[in-house]
Amino acid sequence: MESDVPRLLAKFESGALRRPTAARPNVVDLAGAVWSAAGVPGLDLTPAARTIEAQLGGREHLVFVLADGLGMQLLESMPSATYLWTHLDGTLDTVFPSTTAVALTTFATAAWPAAHGVVGHYVHLDGVGVVTPLLGATRSDGRPVPEANGDGRLFLVPSLASRVPRPALSVLPAAVVNSPFTAYATAAPRVGYRSLNEAADLAIDFIQAAREPTFTYLYVSRIDETVHELGPLRLEAVGAVGDLAHVMARLAAAVGARARIVLTADHGHLAVRPSSRRVIRGVDDLAGMLAGGPTGDARTVFFHLQPGALEAFADRFRERFGVAYCLLTPDEVEDLRLLGPAPLAAETKRRLGDAVAISFGDDTLEVRPKGAPADRRLAWPSHHSGLTAAEVRVPLVIV
Length: 399
What we know:
Elements: H1 5-14, H2 27-37, H3 47-56, E1 61-67, H4 72-76, H5 82-86, E2 88-93, H6 100-109, H7 113-116, E3 123-125, E4 129-132, E5 137-138, E6 168-173, H8 180-185, E7 190-193, H9 196-209, E8 214-220, H10 222-230, H11 235-255, E9 259-264, E10 270-271, E11 277-281, E12 295-296, E13 300-303, H12 310-321, E14 325-328, H13 330-335, H14 346-351, E15 355-359, E16 364-368, E17 382-383, H15 389-392, E18 393-398
Parallel strand pairs: 1-8, 1-9, 6-7, 6-8, 11-16
Antiparallel strand pairs: 2-18, 3-4, 4-5, 9-18, 10-17, 12-13, 13-15, 14-15
């Protein structure tokens, strides 16, 4: 099969795309640093992680804030984020694919996707079908996935949350506080909130009442939800970032020198031009070569093909979408170390299917079954999961 690796490498070389590497500070480093600073023993930290951990020390309490969707490009465009700017310590690269399920599993495990196996918003499990990891359920009918809450088939690496030795509190949006993924990825007890001010109050009360060192995790979903629904340039997005900056300042003022607060994001965002929405319809010859629903996300798609269909699929796909996408084999993904510096776990590699399509820019790709309506999620004006700097670069804020 013809290889698109040279084309992808040229995009990395030109700066159009950002190549994943352990050589730059990244969210895997941060995850290791946070868990170690929270008291989890025996972690094998990188030099970058040790540097971050040293910055997190010296305080009685540790607060980790994950602002979903707050990439550096979005932060740089926000006039309302002064407090975040004044405490910006640097930038990190997120993992690839740059999407929430992948990154949050990395934060839970301090492991690269190559090891932990959650490779997209949708993941294919042999014998189960297409699964939504954040829901711990099948995509088609919402059936719970066996072992979704443990260290079994869906999550290949155990979460570190249960190993935190100090009192902990996880503060999450009320809609997700009881989800299977939350149970896997975060420390108990878990409390839900309906506003950012309520979330701050829950964290403040927990820390002020504590008689020993604590660890608090605060997950903020509003920025990501707003940018997905409306795009990154709307006033509502400015307001969401401004509200976060205000709450961070209030939290820091309330806990004072007793606590260290660290904030980052799971990914950034890149707006979608209407002309960049690509669709493979159910009557399409490409759809006829699929063995099941594709997985991954809007800009990184994993195709599971009928036996013997790879060559024909690749030729036709490149003819249709070759300007906007590269198409790689799982072996090529592994050789390029796109999912981390180590070889892929065997199960991770199976989840990549037979062909991996990666957007060169803002293009998104929907596979729409015959007679099905458009996927509302893929009609959003902003997406992520690709390799552009807008999606990959995230802030590191330390207060």
